[in-house]
Structures are given as structure tokens and as C-alpha cells.
Write the C-alpha cells for this entry.
Amino acid sequence: MATLQSLDIKRRSATTETPPSVRSSIEVAKLIDVSKCIGCKACQAACYEWNDLHEEVGINIGLYENPHDLTDKTWTLMRFTEFDNKGNLEWLIRKDGCMHCDDPGCLKACPAPGAIVQYQNGIVDFISENCIGCGYCVKGCPFNIPRISKADNKAYKCTLCSDRVSVGQAPACAKACPTQAIYFGTKEEMKVHADGRIADLKERGYQNAGLYDPPGVGGTHVMYVLHHNDQPQLYSDLPKDPKISPLVQFWKGGFKDVALFGFGLTALLGFFHYVTKGPNEVERKDEEAAKRLSGDRP
Amino acid sequence: MTNGWNDIKNADVITIMGGNAAEAHPCGFKWVTEAKAHNKAKLIVVDPRFTRSAAVSDLYCPIRQGSDIAWLGGLINYILENDKTQKQYVALYTNAAFIVKPGYGFKDGLFVGYDEQRRDYNRAEWDYELDEQGMAKVDPTLQDPRCVYQLMKQHYTRYTVDMVSRITGSPKDKMVKAWEMIASTGTPERSHTSMYALGWTQHAKGSQNIRAMAMVQLLLGNIGIPGGGMNALRGHSNIQGLTDLGLMSNLIPGYLTLANDREPDYATYMRSRQFKPMRPNQTSFWQNYGKFFVSFQKSMFGAAATKDNDWAYDYLPKLDVVYDVLRAFELMHQGKVNGYFCQGFNPLLSFPNKKKLTEALTKLKWLVVMDPLKTETAAFWENHGEHNDVDPTKIQTEVFMLPTSCFAEEDGSLTNSSRWIQWHWKAAEPPGEAKTDIDIMASLYRRMRAMYAKDGGAFPDPILNLTWPYIDPDKPLAEELAKEINGKVLEDVPDAADPTRIVLRAGQQMPAFALLRDDGKTAAGCWIYTGVYTDAGNMMARRDTNDPADRGLFPNWAFSWPANRRILYNRASADKDGKPWSHRKRLIEWNGRAWGGFDVPDFGVAVNPTAGTMPFIMNPEGVARLFTRGMMRDGPFPEHYEPFESPIANPLAPKIVGNPVARVFKADMEVFGKASDFPLAATTYRLTEHFHFWSKHVPVNAVLQPELFVEISEELAKEKNISKGDWVRVRSNRGAIKAKAVVTKRIKPLVCDGKPVHIVGIPLHWGFVGATKKGFGANTLTPYVGDANIETPEYKAFLVDIERISPPVA
């Protein structure tokens, strides 16, 4: 696992330069095999414990999901869907949380330098002390994952246990999973493992079984094995073709250049105006008009 | 378990019925996912609800709770009708060929010999015909109309697909598909494992539910082989240890039984326990009963147990009736039990009919509760509003709360479902004034002993003569107790052939139970545990992960009773000549001189197959019983009876209510509800987010499942105008609870006996202390009746009604 240890940064939010690194790191991934998951919530409990998160005791609203949504203290949540597949019931249970996109919308949207980083191994992490709580990451995320804390007005989400991974450990959820529905390793290994699982599912009649590694976000470092990969939205609205919001794409992409050009143009025009017209100066009539407006009569 | 958790990975077909392993045993369930992922196993789940286990199954078949014997009887009929048995196995290794007495019969839902007044059978005719030598008669061709095979076939002809579907509500196509998959393992190459738990035991015919599947497994040749077996998933980390050590009112350690009051002396006691073989050349291992019993008495009473005083037989209590917990609380309710020690046990929430339990506890003079947590039982006298609406001024019971350490705060062993006895080490000091259970019991005993020594009393001998050989008598060490349970040699034992050679030396730890003796020269606290702590050290602390041939046996990991054997009856994995039935499923075999292989043979190591000794050595027949003779109170073959509270009359025998021999106390019979008043079939169960009434004290678990709910179908919700998240009241004839409604597709109404039966699911984890929202105990509703053989209460099938209510005022 030594090769997984590097937490060298590949990308920082609101920073155009890629920090140089002497090392190159292998990309990691977590593979969640939904077909093996029994929804026991051990991963959710392990996440609270490892990250020292103290979620409030809620109420039952007629569902198995507790809490009812991701929060600043619940970074992973088991979501349950009852799917009537032509008379055969299926209980589709999905562990929801940050997908650690290769092209992270949150990082792209973030205006605070270094508040969101992507490590060389692919993990996308929030660096709280740099976070300004603007919520752009929430808008930027195609999976609706980050949550802003009311206590400190900072954004929180799954770190893929970057602290554990940096010392060669698997994330807490993977460690706790009793049925090995959560695998962790290099992204390549996880893809190979997924192939075996998909072949097994196809043999059992799930013709559309497949790996969820959506290209719209450059692939993800959290992937799912789904029985119905053709309909990921069955699994509590997992997006079929997630993409970074066009607004963020535009704002931080094309528009950014336009805006920069705008800034430059304004400065340039100002300069020409100075050169051709000279500086603006306050004249006597201006002073008198100002005094009149402020009620200070001459 | 006949097999073990890890062995499940060897199965080809797995049935979870009478349990919900993914929910209640998520860690053990990993072996199911292993079997599926690496052995191409198919998983069948049969349950009234589409459970978390069903979520990862290959086939789910709904069933009405309490109708499992009908379903399994149908499966037996299917196997026999379609000739799917593993023929040689059935003919040789079961009692299929045995001839039954002519007086045995079955009519109108009752076996011969029923006495309605006593609610009991005269079971004399439920037995084999014997020849002049006292040996059972057999017909190896299985053609004799009085042989077990033919009687069984006849008994289950009534269990047709139509009849079974009518009783169980299972859709015929799903049911037959499941039967077909299970029956596909009636070949030597394939095995089927049965995983069950309290969904089978908690019925008035719980033992027979298990028997029915055991018969299926025998017919398919699935006992004694890898990936097979009858596998009881125990519900606590050490509940297997509890039964092994005989913590039941009628047992002594190692499944020896306490004497009853018709057995005044040792000779009488032994007469009904040392079974002689019923067929030539059979082992009948219980012939060694005396060796285990005498060694137990020597362990308990040391030098005070002698041949002359019948090994202190008089020191042991003699039962007039069995004092199971239901009877104990009934007697408490009658005012006949005045003091109660409640150790690691929360009966107010764990036992049926909370109202009756509260009344019973109110009548006590004193109650001692030993527990690491504050329990509802300890707080039964506190008013918690509607969740425990009592008047403390009217309760005079004096309650003592003795805080104990939990498992992580002490050294000791835990015995898991696989029969593995695993040592664990203290990880932290107990908080505050908490003491270990051992320390509390030791100081209690020391005080009582001092009082008996000073004041005498009617019969102080058993108390005064109890061996107490611990370095610190007030604080016996776990290791000291483990060594005592293992047993040791008290006097030198010379070799029978060469008296100059000493086989066992005085002071030595007993190496194996096979060497225990009935002459007082050996002691062992629990014979089946002999071997856990030998002169080689603490075998329970072994952590060797080697696993020859990847069989999941791990022979040097901890210690598996008996004799470190991992799969019971493993002689049955080989044919009569000692060759494995299949290479794929091989475990042990005869190599021409001895038995050997991957596991410790469950058989005489040097017994040549030509001797004709059969694999089921504990039975005097040498074979497994499809027909149980008079061993079970409610019949030699499992027969379907409805739960005591049932939405329908028994389609097989409409006049019979419940299990005809289950014990019911008069007042409890009167509060059974009728289907006309309570039309819905209810059942109770655990959730994976919680463990009993413990984890509701843990904030993380409380977050994961914060509040009591009940589960109902969309159809019932519509009928009763209930939406998800609404408050509902659920009533039985014994009480009512309020809960949130979870409306789900995972429960469907079942058509039973021509009418729709709605199911109400009630999780059991809530009470009035802990970190969750306060909730009502599910057992406010459940009926006070137990299994006919072992008195496990019928929590799994009873009647209720449900209505929407307005939310309680906060």
C-alpha cells in the first residue's frame, strides 16, 4: 500500500497552477457492490465513529433511512428503494456519499483557494480552514453531496478517509463492511474485481449488470456494481449521466475567459482614457453640488 | 450448528427460513455472500417479509408466519413423490428402514395416545418393533408398510401443493421453484445448508419446525458434509455457551439432564440415560453417560463425592416440574416466588405479556438485577408516562442494581454458533463500581457458605462441600474456571494392559473427554468442553489461520467442541465403505487402517467400515431419526398446527387449536385473542441497527434507528387509511402499543384458506430507557405460551388490530 500513501496534491480549488510533485501516485478507488450489500449500515456507523461525528437522534418518518438525508455530520447514508421488477420485488440499497469524481464539480466551482483539493491518488478532500462557506461546491456537485454546517458555516462531505488511506489503510466503511460489499484498492484492481462480479450477476439473470463509473465527470473514485446499470436512477436517483452543472462549466470555464478579458479590457480602456483625456479632476461646481445634496448650504 | 459459519461458503444451495441472517447476523452472513460469489450458490429466502436477506437472494418465497411445517411437509412430500432422495444415504444412515409398532397411528391431526385432559400423549406406541434380542426390526428394502419410510410417505401425502399453498399463502410457482432448488442437492456432488434462528424456535411447535428441515436434510443426504447441515444461528455471542454449560433449569453442563423427583437414587437416574444399542454393532455413545456425570460430580464436590454416596447424587436438586422462565413468572404472578435474581437478562422487555410481567415483579419482595446497563426490568417500578404507566407508591418490591462489567472488561471465553470456544482478553477496566459477574457470584456464595457453616440448616452439605479451589476465593480467575471446566486427573490411572504404565497422571489437565472415567479418578466441569485447557495450554486462545484444502475448518483456531471437531456427524460424508460420497465434498475417509482427513472424525478412529457401525453414534440406533420415537412430546413426525392465535382454522384439522400438547396456564388461555376481534397476523423481530435492548443505549445505533415503528403492506395501509410516517395504535388482547407506520411493498397480504391475511411486522428494540426515542416494548402484545418441548415463547405469530391515531402531544 506504500504507493497509495502519497497525499501529493494534484489540483487545488481557485488555483490555476498544478503543484509540482516528484512522485506519481496510483489512483485509488472504492468499489461498492450493491448486489452484495445487505443495508446493515455498519459503514454508516463506522463513518460516524472514525470521523468523530455526532449526529442527532432523529425520528422515524416511515422509512428505513436514518437520518433522512446527508448532513454536515452524516457523510454517508444508506438509501433504500423498493422496486417492483415485473412482479419480483427488489430492495435496492445504495450507500450514498461523495463519488470522488476525477473531474470534480465541487473543486471547479469553489472560489476559495485551496478549500478543495484533489490528491494525486484521486481523492477529493475539503480543507476546512480554507473554506468560506459560500456553498458553490453544493451547486457544483452533480450528485448533491456537500452539506454546509450551521455550526461553523463550512462545507463537509466524505473524505474517502484520506487520513487512513495516507497511512495505507482502507476507508473505515470498507473496513467495517461485513459482506465485503465495499472493496478498496487501486482503481484498476477495482475494475477487474467488478468484471468478475458483473459476470456473476449476468449469470444470475441480471443482463444489464454493470459498473457505474460515469464518464461525464471523468470517471469516479467511488464506483458501484449495479444489477441494473442501464437504470442507475432506480437506486434512489443515482444520476444516469452526471455532468457538472452547465452554469458552473460556463462560470468557471468559458465565462471565466470572457470575464478575464472583460477585466483586462476595462483596465486598458481606463488607461487610454487617462492618456487621451487626462485624469478626472473635481471642479468648484462639483463641490457646490455635493454640499447642496448633503444639506450643508454654503 | 452441526457445521459452522465458515463452512456455509461450501454450500450450493442455502435456505434462510425461520431467520433473517443478513439482518440479525450480518457478520456471519458474509459466508453466504462468499458462497454466492465463489461457489455459485443460490440463496432462497422464505419469510413473511421481504427482508434484508431477501434483498440479496436468488429466490424469495413469502409464507404466513407459523406455517413452516406445512411448507416443509410439502417439501418432504415433493422429495418423496419425485424420488429426489439420496437413496443410499437414506437407506443406510437414517431410520427409514425401521419397523414401527403396530399400535402407532395418526388421525384427524392427532397421533395415537392423546389425552385431552392432560394435554399430553401416551407415547408408548411411538416406537420400533423389537426382536427377541431387543434389537429394532428393519426392512432394508423400505417396502414394509410399517417401516418409517412408508409411514413418513403416507403422513405427508396430505401436504399437496394446493394444501400447502392454502395454509401458507405461498404462491405455488415460487414455492415449487424453491422445493426444486433444494431437492437438487439430493446428490453427492451438491449440498444444501439450512440457516435458521428464532423465526423457527419462537413458536408453540418450534422444535418441530427444526425437525422438519432436519428430515429434509437427511432425505437429501446433507448432514455431515461440507456446505450442509442444520445451522442454528445463535442470537447472542455466547448463547451457545449458555446451553453448553447447562444454564437451563433442567440441565447440568454438557447436555446432561437434572434428575426428576421420580429418580430418588443414582441407579434409577442412570437407567433411563445409558441407552443400550438398538442395532448390532452400534456405538450408542450415551453409554458413557456415567463417566461424564461422575466426572461432573467430582468437579463440583471433590472428595465429598464418593462411590459410597453415589457420587453425591443427593446433593443435586430433583425436579418436580421444569422451571422454565414462563413458569417462574407464572409462579411469581401467583405470589409463590418472592425473590428473583436477574443476571444479564431484561425480562420485562424480553418475555411475553408485559402487563403480566409487571404485575409479577410487583409481587416480589426483592429483585436483584445484575447488568452493565440500566434495564427496564430494574426500572419496572418507575413511571415513564404511557411507556411504563405504573404507580411507584403502590410497588413495594425492593430492587438492588448491581452493575457488572461487560465482555470487553474481563477475560473469558465466548462460544459462537459454530461451537467454537474463543478466548478473549480484557480491553478496559470496568467503570465505577462495576464488578465481574464472577466476583459478585463468588462473594455471594462465600457469604452464604459462612452462614450455612455457622447456622447449619436442613441440608448444608452441598453448599459446604462445594469445591472452591481458587487462589483468591473472592475473585476466581477466568483461567481457573476454564481449567476446572476442562477437568483434570485426580488419581493416577494405569494402563489396563500394562499396570506399570501410567496413562493419566494425577494433577494433569484432562487431554480429552474420551478418557473421562466413572470411578472418581477424573473430574470435568463440562465434558464436551474437555480439551479447551490442557497441559499444552489454553486451546481457546489459539489463532492459527491455516485451513487445509480451504475447507473453512481452521482446525487450529480456538477450540471447537466436541474434541475440536468442526463438522458434526462427519462420518456421514463417506459411504458405507468409508469412501467420500464425492471428491468435492470429502471430509474424512477410511484409509484401510484408520479414519482421517480434514476434520476430527466423529467416529471411532479405528472402527473398520466392515463392522457396520453407523455414523450417528449418539443414537442407540446408530442412524439419524426421521421418526423420533417418543422423544418429542408433540409427535414422532412434525405436523402442522396453527399458532394459538391464528387468522384461520387449521385446514388439516379444523378442530385443533394451537399445538395440542403445548402447556398453557389458565389465565393465559383466557387472554388469547380471536380472529374476529384481531384479524391481523403479527410477528416480532430484530433490526440490524440494534442488538436486543442493549444498543439503544449507544448514540450511534440510536441515530441509525431512532424510533419504534411497525411495518404494514400498502394494501392494509389503504384499507386502514394509514400513510407512511403516521402514528398508529396496534392492539392485541393483552395490550396496545403506539408506533410510527412504515408502509412497504416488502409485505404483501397472503391468501390463506381462501381469504386475504394481512401481516403486521413489529421490531422489538424499544423501551423506556436509553438513547433512542422512548418506545413501547413489542412484548406488550405477545402471547404467554411456549414450545411444547422447550417452552420458547410464541413471539412470532399472534393476532392484532391496527388503527391510525393522532400524534401524541409532545
In short: The two ends of chain B are 47 Å apart (CA to CA).
